[in-house]
Amino acid sequence: MTGNFSNTQNSHPIHFQQRDESILRAIQSYDGMLTRRQIKAMFWQDASNQAMERRLSLLFHNHYLNWPNLEQRRTRPIPESIIWLGWRGILHLAEQQTSLLIGEPKNDSENQMRMLEARLRKVSIYWLREPNWNQLAHDIAVNDFRMQVQKAVSKLPSITMEPWQTEGTFRRDMDIISYEFENRSGQKEKMKHGVRPDGFFTLVDHLRQINNQPAKARFLVEYDNSTHPLYRFGKQKALPGLNYIRSQAYRNRFGFNSGRWLVICKSETRVKHLKSQTEYVLGKQASNFLFSIASELNYQTVLTSPVWHLGASNSRVSLINNIGSMPE
Known about the structure:
Shape: globular
Number of helices: 13
Low-confidence stretches: 6-10
């Protein structure tokens, strides 16, 4: 749709509410995209779908929200209904965050949207104008995992979680690390690798803090969509992942060189193969990796149940058990 906005606005008047702003902030905090199912779980858990749809429709027609058009639904791989921010939605958040008047577009033509995007970038506001269709299923799954962790934390009185860092955070400011790799001929190769986790979060145990014990556990997320060749995982994911935790770039970003990678797979077979590849390349240092099956993870199991296979071991552990287990 192109042209001016007057007809759309007049036919769908809206009184902007506090919950509307909370919805916009939630979408932006999840790298700019959520599913309808996820939004309902956050904001309309006990209400009907009709109540939610009425409100979302008003926000859509007033350009606060956006969702796939007919052409995108026909040509793009969309596993379920998704929503991202419209131009007025991102403008509202930008002006709240920066206290600057960014300026509305004259119309919703492609040229005007690009100009708005450029103005937003100048004040460090990043707008997902359109989802990454090729990794949409992956991004939805990562958001589901994050919501599981957040809900699990909310059920544990002594545990909190520091702000989640999204893949987009790392994409816009990627850490590049250099390290050496010994090939099968025994020769050392110099490698350079940009590291972009699917997420990063830190759990804090306040009971351990009170007792002056190590109280934090840091986790980097790798959601495996079974698209990466098995034989490359050890060299292209596990090895740079380990070296990243040990790097100065990691210390500069997080202040410490401790952490574990969480590798989430679709099947037990995939877990077995990726764990084996990681152990082949890293040996005992594969203990810096934990592997689990997506179907075993929910808010009741993700933190407190032994659903994570520990690298370089036959043990299964819980994430809570990792708090204080690695030096800070």
